Amino acid sequence: MIGQMRAAFAKLVIAGQAQLPLSRICLQLTCPNVQQVRSAVTGFNSHNSDQLWKSISVVSKNGARRGRGKKVNARVIKDLYRNQVLGDGKVKMVWPGLNTSVVRGRQIVQQEKLDTPKEDPNEAVREAKEEKLARRKLHPLDRGFSSANICGRNLKNTTNLELHKDFDFRVVDNRNVCHMTGLVGRYQTAAVVVACGNGNGLIGLGAGKSMLRLKAVQKASTRAMNRLVYIERHNNHTVLHDFFSHFYATKVFVSRKPEGHGLKCHRVIALICKLAGIKDIHVKVEGSTMPMNVAKAFVLGLVRQKTYQDLAEDKKLHVVEFDSLRRNFPNVLASPTVCRKNADIPTTESLDFTQHALDGRVRYVKPRQPPFFTKLKGWEVHLKKEERSRGYRQNLYELTAKYGETRSFLADKYPEARQKNKIYKF
Fold first, then answer.
1. Residue 135 DSSP label
2. What is the Cα 103 distance to its own chain's centre?
3. Is the predicted pLDDT of residue 236 greater than 80, yes or no?
4. How far is CA 385 from the centre of its chain?
5. Quick check: pTM over 0.70?
6. Which of 27, 99, 295, 418 could form a disulfide with 87 if both were Cys (CB 3.0 to 4.6 A apart)?
7. Closest Cα partner for 197 from 220, 164, 173?
8. The S5 DRBM domain covers which part of the protein (predicted)?
9. Residues with Cβ < 8 Å from 41, sequence gap 6 or more?
10. What is the pLDDT of residues 162-208, one digit of tens each?
11. Which of these, 236, 257, 240, 229, lies nearest to 306 by C-alpha position?
12. Is-contact 412 405, C-beta < 8 A?
């Protein structure tokens, strides 16, 4: 400190502003409060707080081999400098060299007490804690699968990432993965799978990994936009046909449903359906239910769907739909360029459309248990009374759809086996 003052005074002498000799000035500056103290270097002032905590929590190699110190990382390491202001305490003081300079102008700053209004020492801590721990209120539609996890959330409303304005982005899977390295040890990263879609047939899946979860979400969102595919839909509300798909140990059986049925499927598949614009579907998932595998199996099945024209060309037959909502009225969906006749179709060939669409696989449907009253004697009496009219209306629908009128299959041989001039009100 004396050396600094001498250097400052030497500059004044050179500038012609000093009037006293240097030796006399130094004698006047010598006082009990200003002393040159040798700075001792010890372990407490040469290491930071992290190194000090590690010195008391580290385990030697021999101790680690014997199984000691397994929960060292679980200890709560305290921050020694948290909420501490250098030189300030309960009594506000001026400490030269700590919270103020030693020399102010040509005078040495002395220790003194500051008469300042009393402030709450925890006010700044409370404000910081409220700002950090304040829970951001989310809209119920943006909370995702659960409020604690990012899966299923709307990334546009819950993050500040730069995303495409015409697409909706949702997190499908969120995991912490790690692997051992010889240099760093256990290397942990965040693995995220994001699905994006515009609600009109476009869907994309992307995966990303990073040390920071938000950065992994940004990577996955970018890759999802680069891998967009278009999905064909029937009347813009369901899939074209029933299909089977699998990805590793995950098997997916998809069934087409009429309008108004809704989404009855796994929550990951329901999320992808909303992004692609599919409103009515029924999906049965068998095997592994890992979210990433379920999403990939379903998207692969959507991409591999065949159009009605492709199905007609494969079988060389007409594709006809019998819709129960239209009382099984036949509707021709596609016709092949060359159609086979009945004589060309072998008897061993299966004409079941569902079996053909599922690639020869049929999902096992567990039969329902009959209700309890079917075992009672009164139920047998009821069946005998209703035997004549049982299935009458259903048979009427099927005959009208098949022949265009209410007639028997023997009507060609026996013309009287036909009802004429009779109008039915359904």
1. P
2. 60
3. yes
4. 58
5. no
6. 99
7. 164
8. 185-231
9. none
10. 888 889 999 999 999 988 888 878 888 999 999 999 999 999 999 99
11. 240
12. no
